[in-house]
Amino acid sequence: MKQIRAQLLTIESHSIMEQYDLLLQLSEAIQTAYANDTSMNETGLVKEISDKIHALRYKMAYNKATDSGLKDTKLKQAWEELNKLK
Amino acid sequence: MKQFIYLCCLLACMVSFAQTAEQFTDASARKQDDFARTLPELNEAPEFKGLSPIQQQKLINDLAESEKNTDEVSNGLAGAMSSTPTLIDAWKVLDDAGVEQALRSDPDKLAKVNRYLDHHPTNKDRFVEDLKKTSDPEKFIDRTFWIDALIQQYGNDVSQFTTQGLSRTDVPPSTVDDMLHASSAPADIRQGIVDDLIHSGSTVPFKVDIQAGDALFKISPKGNGVSDFSPYWVTKRELDDVRSEENLEQKLGLPLGSHGVEYEVFKITATTDVSAFTSTIAPTLQNGYATIGGATQTLVLDRTLWSAASKVATFIP
Questions:
Q1: Residue B111: which of B134, B137, B82, B91 has the closest Cα?
Q2: What are phi and psi of B101, to 5 degrees?
Q3: Separation of alpha carbons A62 and B299, rounded Å
Q4: N or C: which end of chain A has fewer CB within 10 A?
C-alpha cells in the first residue's frame, strides 16, 4: 500500500498516457490486494485512485489526441471495479 | 425401361463431365507449362511455390488476363512480380480476402499491401478480415497505405499533438465563466480542460442553446468507439459537409491516431434544453504533421444532459 500511495503522490508529473498506464496498474494492484486479504480496509486509498481515474477520463477526453472510446472503456471498468470496493 | 433410359442418361452425363474435366485439366496443365516456360523466375519463386495448387492456377490466370491489358509502357503484373516476388504474398492476401480480379492484379495496390504488411506482419489476418467486410476494397487498400505512410513518417506520439487555437486571454471572461459553469468536470481540473477547449478552436467559443431532442454527431475511427466525456461534436449539417470532402481529417484537425481507414458516426441527443459552445476547429501540429482545421465544432461540456452515444453509420471517405 505504501508503494501505491507513493506512486499516487507523483502521478501528476507523468504524461497523460503514462498516467493512464499507471492508474490501470494501481487499480489492478489494489483489487488484487483486496482479493487476497478479505479484511483489508483501504477505503481512502481506493477513493483516491477512483477519483484520479475519474479526472483522467475527463482529461483524456478533452485532449483530442487521447480522446478514445477504447481507452475510456478500460478506465471506466477500473473505476467501476474500485467503486465496488468502497 | 424407364430405369434403363435414366441410367443411360446418367452414364452419358458422367462421360461428358469426365471429358470436360479432362479438357479443363489439359488446358490448366498447358497454362502451367506456358507459365513455367515464359516466367521461370516466378515459377521458381518460393512465394509462388507456397501457394496452394488452386491459387497457383488462379494467379496464372490473373497473369494471363493482365498480359492482355499490358502495353509497352506499363510494367504489368508479371513484370512487377518478377522484380518483387513478395508481391505474390500480397496477391495471396487479396485473394484470401476475396477481392475482384482487377484489383488483385493491380501492381500499385499489391505494392501498397506489400508495404503495409512488411511494416505490420502480425496484422495480416486482421487486414484480410477487415478487407472482406469493407464496402470499398480499393479505397480500403489506398487509405490503409496512406495512414501507414503518415505514421511511418511522423510517428504517433500523442504528446507531440498540439492544437494551434486561442488562449484564455483571447476570450472574454464572461465566456470563460459560462464554460466553467456549464462543465460537469471535477472542480480541480475544470480550469485546465476549459483551456484545452478554448485552445482547440481558432475563434471565440460562442454559446448556443440546444433544445431537448436535438442531435449532435461525432466521427471516430471504426472500432474505436466514443468516450463518455468527449466534448468534441458536430451538427448534422457540419457532418454532411465534412463527409462530402476528401480531406475530412484536415478539416476536423484530427490527430494521427484518429485517422481511420473507415469511420463510424456516433450520435447523441440532448435529453433536456441545454447550452453548448461552437468554435472553428483550429489547425493542429503533430511532430511536423499539420492539419488546417476549419470545420465548426460544437463543444458539449456536460454529457450527463445527453443520451449515450449510439453508432448510426459507417463510411469510408
A1: B91
A2: -60, -40
A3: 10
A4: C
Tell me whether A13 touches chain B (CB under 8 Å). no
Using a CB–CB cutoff of 8 Å, tell me whether A72 touches chain B: yes
Pairwise CA distance, residues B26 & B23, whole Å: 5
Residues 6+ apart with CB under 8 A from B22: none
Q: How far apart are CA A7 and CA A17, in angstroms?
A: 15
Identity of the residue numbered B120: H
Largest pairwise CA distance in chain A: 42
B-chain residues near A64 (CB < 8 A): 161, 163, 200, 232, 253-255, 258, 284
**Which DSSP letter does residue B270 get?**
B
- Cα B201–chain centre separation: 27
Stated pTM of the model: 0.87
Element (H, E) at B298: strand B296-299
CA A46 – CA B147 distance, rounded (Å) = 41
- Cell triple for residue B176? 470563460
Distance CA B34, CA B46 (A): 19
Helix ranges restricted to H, B219-290: 236-243, 248-251
Does the structure's ipTM exceed the value 0.90? yes
The answer to whether the beta carbons of residues B304 and A58 sit under 8 Å apart is no
Q: Are residues B245 and B313 in contact, defined by beta-carbon separation less than 8 angstroms?
A: no
Distance from CA of A41 to the nearest CA of B (A): 26
Residue A55 and residue B226: Cβ atoms within 8 Å? no
Tens of pLDDT, residue by residue, chain B (317 residues): 566 666 655 555 555 555 555 555 666 677 777 777 778 888 888 999 999 999 999 999 999 888 877 665 456 898 899 889 999 999 999 999 999 999 999 999 999 999 999 999 999 999 999 999 999 999 999 999 999 999 999 999 999 999 999 999 999 999 999 999 999 999 999 999 999 999 999 999 999 999 999 999 999 999 999 999 999 999 999 999 999 988 999 999 999 999 999 999 999 999 999 999 999 999 999 999 999 999 999 999 999 999 999 999 999 99
Nearest CA in chain B to A63: B196
